[in-house]
């Protein structure tokens, strides 16, 4: 961000927001380690995200459109593979918001939030390459309807 104008959010910014959304009380050192950045670089990103209004508080409220694409990824496992084996690798992805082990024709349902179709494609390929994964299907969210 320069002179009060918004800057484009990159993958590290979105990953930082994802980490904070999971636990907004993480120390900067822990965030930096998870992002593969220095403490000062991470602190500078936080300052810019706060100054631009992307981060409005530490319940982490993001500006609409700052993470624009949600999708459900349906993961089917190979025979012998288990969700317990796969869950740690899935939850390690900052884009993952929810991970459910389910019964039925698929084994896991993962809700992810990313900034672009390209990032969604990369996430899908990442999951497809995990040991024990037979198939990954992707369903982008078109609208969210909340009930009581």
Secondary structure: elements and pairs:
Elements: H1 11-22, H2 28-35, H3 39-51, E1 69-77, H4 83-91, E2 96-101, E3 108-114, H5 117-128, E4 133-140
Helix pairs in contact: 2-3
GO biological process, one term: response to amino acid
Organism: Salinarimonas soli
Protein name: Lrp/AsnC family transcriptional regulator
Task: Calculate the mean pLDDT score and round it.
Answer: 86
Low-pLDDT stretches: 1-6
How are helices and strands ordered from N to C? Answer: HHHEHEEHE
Helix content: 25-40%
The CATH superfamily of the largest domain is known as Lrp/AsnC effector binding domain/regulation of amino acid metabolism (RAM) domain
Helix count equals 5
- What structural class do helix, strand and pairing data support? alpha+beta
Assign an overall shape.
Answer: globular
What percent strand?
15-25%
Question: What does this 3D model show about the protein?
Answer:
By secondary structure, this protein is of the alpha+beta class. It has two domains: 64 residues, Winged helix-like DNA-binding domain superfamily/Winged helix DNA-binding domain (Arc Repressor Mutant, subunit A), CATH 1.10.10; 72 residues, Lrp/AsnC effector binding domain/regulation of amino acid metabolism (RAM) domain (Alpha-Beta Plaits, 2-Layer Sandwich), CATH 3.30.70. The chain has five helices and four strands; from the N terminus they run H-H-H-E-H-E-E-H-E. Strand 2 and strand 3 form a beta hairpin. Helix 2 crosses helix 3. The longest helix is centred in the N-terminal third of the chain and has 13 residues. 22% of the residues are buried.
């Amino acid at each position: 961000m320069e002179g009060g104008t918004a800057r484009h959010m990159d993958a590290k910014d979105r990953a930082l927001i994802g980490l904070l959304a999971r636990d907004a009380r993480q120390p900067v050192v822990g965030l930096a380690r998870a992002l593969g950045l220095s403490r000062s670089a991470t602190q500078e990103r936080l300052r810019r995200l706060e100054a631009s209004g992307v981060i409005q508080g530490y319940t982490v409220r993001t500006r609409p459109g700052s993470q624009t694409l949600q999708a459900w990824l349906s993961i089917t496992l190979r025979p012998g593979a288990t969700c317990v084996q796969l869950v740690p690798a899935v939850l390690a992805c900052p884009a993952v918001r929810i991970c459910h082990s389910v019964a039925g024709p698929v084994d896991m349902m993962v809700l992810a939030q990313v900034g672009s179709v390209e990032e969604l494609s990369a996430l899908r390929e990442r999951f497809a390459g995990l040991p024990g994964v037979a198939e990954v299907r992707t369903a982008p969210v078109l609208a969210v309807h909340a009930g009581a």
